[in-house]
Amino acid sequence: MTPDLCQWTAEQLGAAYAAGELSPVEATKAALAAIDAHDNLRAFAHVDYEGALNQAAVSERRWADGRALGPFDGVPASIKDLFLTRDIPTLRGSRRTDPTQPWQTDSPAAAALRANGLVLLGKTTTSELGWKGVTDNLIDGITRNPWDPTLTAGGSSGGSGVAVRTGMGAVSVATDAAGSVRIPAAFCGVVGFKPTHGRIPMYPPSVLGTLAHAGPMARSVADVAALTDLLAARDHRDPSWTPTIGEPIDPVRIAYSPALGRVDVHPEVAALVAETVAALAGTGLHVEEADPDFPDPASAFDVLWSVGVAHIVRRYGGTAPLDPGLQRLIERGAQHSTADYLDAQSELAALGVAMGEFHTKFDLLLTPTVPIEPFAAGHDVPPDSGLTDWPQWTPFTYPFNMSRQPALSVPIGLTSRGLPVGIQIVGPRHSDATVLAVGALIEKLRPALGYPQENS
Predict the structure, then answer these.
(1) Which one of the listed residues 23, 29, 78, 80 is annotated catalytic?
(2) pLDDT tens by residue, 433-445
């Protein structure tokens, strides 16, 4: 199969199945061939070749008999190696996970994929336990950018971003506790969505609490919106689940913050975002430059993140080697007191209040998704940058995990080096539909990125 078929959206695949013009088996074979062709990018931790083809054959019969489970029945998909998935190991990129244990449970996300007939190709790579904004681990190695394999794909859902961009399935389900969907979406040139916290149920519950979200990644906003609805089905195992609330509103007041008042943004990233904002204003929407002006939440986030991740590792036990950066994070987390953690939770709540107040004045907020271009693979921070921790180069993403707001990254163009740039659309909690609607408009205004030539 050609890369063109691999680049069809889920919406296009479903329409072709319904018309009898394409088989789920053909699409699945094409996706599996893409996985083999791009093995050097390390997008997958596990590929279920036999299981995927069997699922596709069953889907093909459903379509032939007029019993399709929905428009995504037979669409090739993947799921990040942090979600429990029946009959497939969930190693979480860590040598401390016992691969021989029985794998008998589906997470809500895996269960939703199966219930709607999607073909589960396998598990995508993650940083160890999803702890950082790039994707590498001691089991799977380094996940590389499809536009330039010497560069990082971002993370921790880098495997999902690479898989979607290169046609290894039309859609993927990932996690985002600090930007882990939106960062690789921006670096790989796909659409990534972090819904309002609680909209997509999660199990087991994350010790990172309200920071942790599940979110879809795809090559179109329409696919992300449709997949969000599928994943948002009620699951009794998540007491924080909230039903979908509200319909899209016509945003009349959109704020554009080029730098949140304090971020150093790469000039070409800044220019592409500014061009997109101007194009959006050209449609008649009211857009004005305004910063939320909340205090830098970096210190509070560090406490929440280091303490939470340290607890995850303690719960796993074992003595197998850890990612060296993860080990340092654990040691930092051990130094924080209960009072430190409670103070950080108070700052998290205050940020939510501040953004709630901001959204009484503005319906949406636009920012860059990531302030830099992708950097050298195998590094947690850009080499020679003087930075020490990955959150220092992701200041646009993690604050909106702390505030539990919906945030969407949409690709808007390529830099002079041929590297993707994303714009982030943030809305008040439960305004998911409005965020997606404006994302779809921006998608129409900006040129399609095409297929990464490096791996075509």
Answers:
(1) 80
(2) 999 999 999 999 9
